[in-house]
Amino acid sequence: MGLNLNILLGNYPAYGYKTKDLQNLKQEDFVKIFGEVKTNIGNNEREHKNVRILSSQLLKAKEQVRSQDKDKKSILGQINSFRAEDKLKSYKKDHSKGAER
User: Fold this and answer.
1) Is-contact 56 22, C-beta < 8 A?
2) For the chain, is the Cβ count within 10 Å smaller at the N or the C terminus?
3) Intra-chain end-to-end CA distance of the chain, in Å
């Protein structure tokens, strides 16, 4: 049971009342668009795809993505911080055992 995802990347125009939802979008926003794809073959045997937009939904705005990127630490940075904490904990354990004897 596999997923069949047909993803078409490109510019898709929207007309009429469908543009109300899309007016406030900016470049680099993540948008989910649901629609019908019509494929036509032209005289020069090129395949042209037209998408009729039925609905759209804003998934993530550009500002949300940038704020998440600032909050994220790099994986290598996290590994190094965990290693430093482990060394500090083991150092404290060794010195506390030596003081008891």
Assistant:
1) yes
2) N
3) 63
Overall domain count for the chain: 2
Q: What pLDDT is stored for residue 6 in this prediction?
A: 62
pTM of the model as a whole: 0.39
Would you state the pLDDT for residue 82? 84
**Which tops the pLDDT comparison, 13 or 81?**
81
Helix or strand run (H / E) with residue 51: strand 47-60
User: Do residues 50 and 70 share a domain?
Assistant: no
* C-alpha span between 37 and 32 (Å, rounded): 15
Who's near 73: CB < 8 A, 6+ residues apart? none
